[in-house]
Amino acid sequence: MPDTILPMEIRKNADLAGFNSFGTGARATRLIQLRSVDQVPSLLGELKQASRVLVLGVGSNVLFKRDFDGLVVINQLKGKRILAEDENSATLDIAAGENWHDFVRWSLAQEFFGLENLSLIPGSVGAAPIQNIGAYGVELERYFESLSAIDLASGEQREFDRAQCRFGYRDSCFKAQPDRYLIVSVRFRLDKILHPVLDYAGIREMLVLQGANPESPDALQISDAISTLRVNKLPPPELIGNVGSFFKNPLVSVQRYSRIQAEFPDMPGYRQPEGTYKLSAAWLIEQCGWKGYRNGDAGVYERHALVLVNHGTATGEQIWQLASRIRQSVSGKFGIELEPEPRVIPD
Ligand code: NAP
After folding, report:
1. CATH number for the domain including 45?
2. How far apart are CA 309 and CA 318, in angstroms?
3. Which residues of the chain have pLDDT under 70?
4. Which residues of 78-89 are buried (b: 16+ CB within 10 A; e: fewer)?
5. Which residue of 91, 225, 269, 285 pairs with 206 in a disulfide if CB–CB is 3.0 to 4.6 A?
6. Same-domain pairing of 88 and 133
7. Domain of 69?
8. Helix 100-109 vs helix 219-233: crossing angle, to nearest 10
9. Are 89 and 189 in contact (CB under 8 A)?
10. What gap in Å lies between CA 33 and CA 36, rounded to an integer?
11. pLDDT tens digit string along 325-347?
């Protein structure tokens, strides 16, 4: 039996509230949910008529300030394959529209290790390399092998290896040319031997609380501990609109770090391998008094100053105005310019 090619549904004047985890209302001129690679030729045809295109996964890293005059493509390609295995590692090919956390738990259930610290990060597999997602001392690039993408400008399929992705801190080459590529699938090389990364504050304590041995936890125990740490600090997007961290942790030179530290001795700072210092954006924002702030339905989460929230009916513009005020006050007090982590549309 030949595969069935699903017809591609095109919505006009589409409501984006259900397609972004801030839950803010905005409209797109047209919207397509891409469910099969067979639909790509029709998608490329549609693109010819679009002034702009925006590719989304589950919309967990985007803020719509206004309506989007263009075509929104929701990448919902599904599928997980084990490509190769030896005694040390397994190579997997995962479709871009798979849910990230479901994939992490699936990989652990197969006893493929490495992604346990990245448990419960909201989003899709295809969005993960764009952001080079990272948490609790592990970044995606460590387990990334390559990816397949369609160049939406030419319609050609392209492969990107790790070097070509030019990964950085929450960064990759895809951020420099947003929406040029539609990521189809991502290949990971995971370990068959667990190498626990437990150095971030709170992990060992949570393992103990959950009845695990903090000296030799298994991967599912680590994943559970990380998930609980996240649940305790971060609001569930289904209940309170948010995109996780709204600002990147700033990287500053040693000289700059020492200057600020002399004035604010309690300021946390983490020395990076390349010699810079990473500062805690959450700490800087909290020092400016924003934690728990609320103006109408736009606010700062009371348990984490880095998370801007929509308590219900905030507009994207209201959240953006709040973000701008936070940036101004951090800049005024510390001389540091915070950079937003999510995409802000229109950018
Ligand atoms: P935190 O403990 O309040 O610390 C603030 C920041 O300091 C962290 O973001 C982390 O940077 C850095 N840091 C803390 N301990 C460190 C260590 N031992 N070595 C090097 N850097 C260290 O952090 P948090 O907000 O609860 O977040 C915990 C982890 O979850 C972090 O890795 C964070 O990135 C991740 N997270 C990500 C998002 C997101 O939306 N992207 C949301 C929430 C949490 P790094 O961010 O570089 O790790």
Report:
1. 3.30.43.10
2. 11
3. 1-6
4. eebeeeeeeeeb
5. 225
6. yes
7. 4-75
8. 160
9. yes
10. 9
11. 999 999 999 999 999 999 999 87
Distance, CA of 330 to CA of 325 (rounded, Å): 9
Q: Are 16 and 62 in contact (CB under 8 A)?
A: no
Catalytic: 170?
A: yes
CA atoms within 13 A on the CB side of 120: 20
CB atoms within 10 A of CB 109: 10
Determine the distance separating the centroid of ligand 1 and the alpha carbon of 136, expressed in angstroms. Answer: 6
Q: How far is CA 114 from the centre of its chain?
A: 17
* Count of C-beta atoms within a 10 Å radius of residue 184: 22
Burial class (CB in 10 A: 0-12, 13-18, 19+), 290: buried
* Pocket lining: 334 vs ligand 1, CB cutoff 6 Å: no
Which of 53, 75, 97 corresponds to the end of one domain?
75
Residue 135 tokens, joined: 């948490």
Q: What angle do CA 210, 214, 218 make, to 5 degrees?
A: 80
For the chain, how many structural domains are there in total? 3
Q: Based on the domain organization, do 50 and 143 belong to the same domain?
A: no
- Do 105 and 212 sit in the same domain of this protein? yes
- Look up 204 and say whether it is catalytic: no
DSSP character at residue 128: H
Cα 281 to Cα 286: distance, rounded to the nearest angstrom: 9
Is residue 199 in contact with ligand 1, taking CB distance under 6 Å?
A: yes
Q: Is 273 in the pocket of ligand 1 (CB under 6 A)?
A: no
| Three-state secondary-structure class, residue 48 | coil
247's tokens: 């600002």
Q: Model-level pTM?
A: 0.93
Instruction: Select from 75, 97, 131 the last residue of a domain.
Output: 75
Residues 94 and 19 in one domain: no
> Which CATH number belongs to the domain containing residue 288 in this structure?
3.90.78.10
Distance CA 245, CA 234 (A): 9
